[in-house]
Structure formats: C-alpha cells, structure tokens
Amino acid sequence: MKIKYLATVAAALFAMSVVATAQNHAQFDEKDRQTTTDWYNQHKDHAPAGLRQQDHLSADQESRLQEGRVMDHDLRKKVHPVPEDLRRRLPDPPSDHRYVAIGGHVGLIDNNFQVKAVIHLH
C-alpha cells in the first residue's frame, strides 16, 4: 500500500513539474536571449522585416511595447513572424503563443497580442 501511495505521489509531482515547465516557456531565458542575439548578429546585414534598421520603433512606440501589455493597433501593424530558421532554434512556445519580429525586437505574444516577453536586439 505504501509503495502504491508513493508511486501516486511521485507521478503527481512529475505531472505538476511538466505543467510548470511548459508554462515557463512563456518567457525567454538566458539561452533564448543568447540564441536570438547570435542569430541576429549573423543575419543583421540582411535582416528580415521587423528586424531591419528601417523597422525600428519610435520612442513612443517603444514605450508601448512592454511585457504584460496588449499591443495597440499601431504596434500590431508592425508585427512580422520570426524567420523560420530562428524559430527552430527557440523552444516551442505555448500553443496559444507565437514568436514575432517587431521594431528590432523578438517578442513572444499570445493570440490576443499580449506581450509575454521581449528580446531587445538594437
């Protein structure tokens, strides 16, 4: 009986850790930042839309691109998908999130355009 109980508790703890780990992917960690910065440094001479010099945000737009805030319509127009080769180097985002390039940054946003995390590249 004790072994069955301990096995059940261990399985429950494992399941909770898997859920917690999946939820943590809604943020960038240091490895994600380094991967993104390295990718950008290799591609900045031919940067894609959203990461080009001419795509940089104004000071006002920069102030509105904040973690936890929902992007306004002005910022939404500037969102581009991250390049696929960068996307493959990053961990899979939660199912209702996506990686975007916006104004010289890489962001993680949800389906409602709420900014979850931002990597500043310029």
Give the gist of this structure:
Helices cover 43% and strands 16% of the residues. The chain contains five helices and four strands; from the N terminus they run ααααβαβββ. The longest helix is centred in the N-terminal third of the chain and has 23 residues, at 2-24.
Q: What quaternary form is this?
A: single chain
- Our count of helices gives 5
Task: Please provide the count of β strands.
Answer: 4
Q: From the 3D coordinates, which CATH architecture would you assign?
A: Roll
Silhouette: globular
Structural class: alpha+beta
Number of domains: 1
Distance between the termini: 60 Å
Please compute the radius of gyration using only Cα atoms. Answer: 18 Å
pLDDT < 50 stretches: 17-24
Beta-strand fraction estimate = 15-25%
How is the largest sheet built, in terms of strand order? 1-2-3-4
Remind me, CATH topology?
Nuclear Transport Factor 2, Chain: A
